[in-house]
Design goal:
Aldehyde Dehydrogenase, Chain A, domain 1, 43% helix, 3 domains, globular, Aldehyde Dehydrogenase, Chain A, domain 2, binds nicotinamide-adenine-dinucleotide, six-stranded mixed beta sheet, alpha/beta
Length: 805
């Protein structure tokens, strides 16, 4: 009984359930059955359906038709026919539509919050105060981008019809993250909801119709992986955006390889939550609650891996346990619930299995005293799991490495800041990191060194439409939110009219470097073979072979090294060692580039003669190419200290820095056309941004790049920053695409080669940039230089930091 004395004794909350009758009335209005939303209207729920249940009690909420081939086809058709008129609207007109959607979301905020809670199991406090407001914020923010698109992104066009596939953990928010930038850019959309949670997307579709969004601009198909694969594989799409598991992300990378679709992947994570001994411990404990018990821990960027400095670990864990003891798990609709229901029985089973395996591995599991059999009995009908803490975890164990995607924190200790960073980066993922220290030097030093796309200092799990979100390493590539997120839905306008590169001739067969093929043959003597350039030294090719470099009439000019797998490996090794380059200031890198331009210019005549001899373009054109190459290096010398990021103020007392960071090692396959300018146009922006590169120059005309060896040496380019391996472009590109220490691959060659690079890069999910066999006019500054190159040469790290108290 709730007598005042007992209430004062326990200080417990009474039940405070949110009203859900309006949501139930909506479900009833639809007869509890839904189809797809195609061409501006809901279709009849024909064919196979799947059940949507409330994970808090197993109640059947609705049945939803699974979209098959015909539905996906119809949705893409609707989006394709809407694209023409939608993309032709003025920015202001598109902005008004996005604004109208934002208003609709705000108007129906309570309805959407309750529906999301019923469907997903997340606490109403979170849907009401976080998910739905962020959804509205996203549409408002992108209404602004629609208005500003042409001013802010001159020379760009909308990508086209976009396929978008979302997960179940933030169903409406993930929809907003995808749909808002697409519509703002002028694209139309086919979105596939997640099979556990399609309901808010269906309600959103109705809101779009009510807001007067033109038919076909937003289309929704529902279903599981099979439907997703149909969307991803549809040839009518120009872009695919995916959020979900790394496993499926990898499948999609392979499935879309060579299709010409732009791809962005937001994948899994095992994000570190680093607590230094200089942290405000109470604040950090509260931070853990938001890091891992927000949304039941079903958060891709959850701070699921605590790293605590040894001296404070016992105190920190004791306070954490006391806090966990007071967390409330229960009805998601109750306003005083902290942790709601996990999305589905299959997810509970997966969490249990991982926790049991952790115990079997020898780690120590702690759960609150109330997480006993009685809790299990009380929550039998629903998918509930108590907050859990593992200590005594070994850094290499599955517990520390694999995503659990539930309310389970694993905690380890470290001694020094250096060790903290090493442990933090000891993961195949790189989505987010949360860093706690009152010492700014310590916090920012770790923020800079952690390999993650989002870093929160003395905070965690903060999101905003203006701040880019996305991963490093196997957490995927591409960003959602902010200016960088808009670029994911735009393409350079000239690309739409680009012609195919002319079919290249086959390379002459390689010959042994020191073999004797007899008098009169193209035999290679050691002296005549142009070597490779690795780690600042000229090296013989490991294969022991070279290949003839011929003039346009087929006469031998000289021989170039026949690079192989081993040479690429050595080059990557050298590039890895040159990491000081990435830490240099833009100013210091700019000076090297200026010097490089100067030294190339001094030898302009010699380079022009070489280009003419190899390609037969004539001395005037060859001279023009060298001059353009010098100018291009100057361009990136100028840019080196200016592409240095932005500051955003997403919330009153927080700043977010958008810092472009290098990929570190980029593999580059250069085009055959414009052998010097093509090489310089790709290498200069990459190194200007702090990357080290492994490059295969033009395969038929490699000598212009090889002549650069001495220029690089005399221009103070540190050893290992530029590594050049001559040979067969595609054979070498496949080695680079598969190499785990290369984080990005650029490829300018054939359509088949482009497909191969995209497919083979799926292993460590490299960011790829390929030309799909389309030619670029390297002399045209609109095509051959500029923001696109810098965007491709960097990835944004968003660092959130408190700015005031
Ligand atoms: P999932 O990869 O199984 O499913 C995600 C979506 O992909 C669903 O809509 C699903 O139906 C669809 N899908 C499944 N197989 C497919 C296929 N072969 N082809 C096309 N689509 C397919 O992941 P999940 O279990 O729904 O979500 C949890 C995962 O998502 C976690 O790993 C989490 O870290 C990740 N996640 C990442 C982010 C982020 O922004 N990085 C955000 C939320 C969730």
């Amino acid at each position: 009984m709730n007598k005042i004395v007992t209430i004062l004794d326990s200080m417990d909350y009474g039940p405070s359930p949110e009203e859900d009758s309006h949501v139930r009335a909506w479900l009833t209005r639809h007869g509890g059955r839904f189809g797809q939303f195609i061409g501006g209207r809901l279709t009849k729920p024909d064919g196979t359906t799947f059940e949507v249940r409330n994970p808090a009690d197993g109640e059947l909420l609705a049945e939803v038709a699974e979209a098959g081939e015909a539905e996906v086809e119809a949705a893409v058709k609707a989006a394709t026919s809407a694209f023409k008129s939608w993309s032709a609207l003025s920015g202001t007109e598109r902005a008004r539509h996005l604004y109208a959607i934002a208003r609709q979301v705000q108007k129906h905020a309570r309805f959407l919050a309750v529906l999301e809670t019923l469907d997903n199991g997340k606490p109403i406090r979170e849907t009401r105060d976080i998910d739905v407001p962020l959804v509205a914020r996203h549409f408002y923010h992108h209404a602004g981008w629609a208005e500003l698109r042409d001013d802010e992104f001159p020379g760009h066009a909308p990508a086209g019809v976009c396929g978008q596939i979302i997960p179940w953990n933030f169903p409406l928010l993930m929809l907003a993250w995808k749909v808002a930038p697409a519509l703002a850019a002028g694209c139309t959309v086919v979105l596939k909801s997640a099979e556990h949670t399609p309901l808010t997307a269906l309600a959103f579709a109705e809101l779009c119709a009510e807001a007067g969004l033109p038919a076909g601009v937003f289309n929704l198909v529902n279903g599981g992986g099979t439907t997703g694969a149909l969307v991803a594989g549809h040839p009518g799409l120009a872009k695919l955006a995916f959020t979900g598991s790394t496993e499926v992300g990898r499948l999609l990378r392979r499935q879309t390889a060579g299709s010409g679709k732009k791809l962005s992947l937001e994948l899994g994570g095992k994000s570190p939550f680093i607590v230094f001994d200089s942290a405000d411990i109470d604040a950090a404990v509260e931070g853990v609650v938001d890091a891992i018990w927000f949304n039941q821990g079903e958060v891709c960027c959850a701070g699921s891996r605590a790293l605590v400095q040894e001296g404070i670990a016992d105190r920190f864990h004791a306070k954490l346990r006391a806090r966990m003891e007071r967390l409330r798990v229960g009805s998601p609709l109750d306003k005083s619930t902290d942790i709601g229901a996990v999305v589905a029985p299959v997810q509970i089973a997966s969490i249990r299995a991982k926790v049991e395996a952790g115990v079997a591995e020898g780690a120590t599991l702690w759960q609150p005293s109330w997480a006993d059999e009685a809790f299990a009995r009380a929550t039998e009908k629903g998918c509930f799991f108590p907050p859990s803490l593992f200590t005594g975890v070994s850094p290499a164990s599955a517990l520390a490495q694999e995503e659990i995607f539930g309310p389970v924190l694993v905690s380890m200790t470290f001694r020094t800041p250096g060790e903290a960073v090493t442990l933090a980066n000891n993961s195949r993922y790189g989505l987010a990191a949360s860093i706690w220290s009152q010492n700014l030097d310590v916090a920012f030093d770790a923020a800079r060194k952690v390999k993650a796309g989002v870093v929160w200092i003395n905070s965690t799990n903060l999101f905003d439409a203006a701040v880019g979100f996305g991963g490093y390493k196997e957490s995927g590539f591409g960003r959602e939110g902010g200016r960088e997120g808009m670029l994911e839905y735009l393409v350079p306008a000239w690309e739409k009219k680009a012609r195919p590169v002319p079919a290249g001739k086959a390379l002459p067969a390689p010959v042994p470097v020191d073999g004797d093929a007899g008098p009169g043959s193209v035999s290679a003597s050691l002296d005549r073979t142009v070597k490779l350039y690795i780690g600042g030294r000229q090296m013989r090719p490991d294969s022991g072979y070279s290949y003839p470099v011929l003039d346009p009439k087929g006469r031998l000019i000289t021989e170039a090294g026949w690079g192989s797998r081993k040479d690429i490996r050595n080059a990557v090794e050298a590039a890895r060692k040159a990491d000081a380059w990435s830490d240099m200031t833009g100013h210091a890198r700019a000076q090297v580039l200026w010097f490089l331009a100067e030294n190339l210019e001094l030898r302009a005549a010699e380079f022009a003669a070489r280009i003419d001899r190899m390609t037969g373009v004539g001395s005037k054109q060859a001279t023009r190419e060298v001059a353009a190459s010098v100018a291009r290096i100057v361009h990136y010398a100028a840019r080196a200290d200016k592409h240095d990021g932005r500051v955003r103020a997403p919330q009153g007392r927080m700043l977010a820095l958008a810092l472009p960071e290098p990929f570190e090692v980029i593999g580059i396959s250069c085009p055959d056309e414009a052998p010097l300018l093509g090489f310089v146009s790709l290498v200069a922006p990459a190194i200007a941004m702090g990357n080290r590169v492994v490059v295969t120059p033009s395969q038929h005309h490699p000598l212009a790049a090889c002549d650069l060896y001495q220029v690089l040496d005399t221009s103070d380019v540190p050893d290992g920053v530029v590594n050049i391996v001559t040979g067969d472009r595609d054979q070498l590109a496949v080695v680079m695409a598969r190499h785990d220490d290369i984080a990005a691959c650029w490829y300018a060659g054939s359509a088949d080669g482009s497909a191969m690079v995209e497919r083979e890069s799926a292993g460590n999910l490299k960011a790829t940039w390929v030309n799909h066999g389309k030619a670029r006019d390297w002399h045209d500054p609109a095509q051959g230089q500029g923001e696109e190159f810098l965007f491709r040469a960097t990835r944004i790290k968003s660092i959130w930091t408190p700015f005031g108290v």
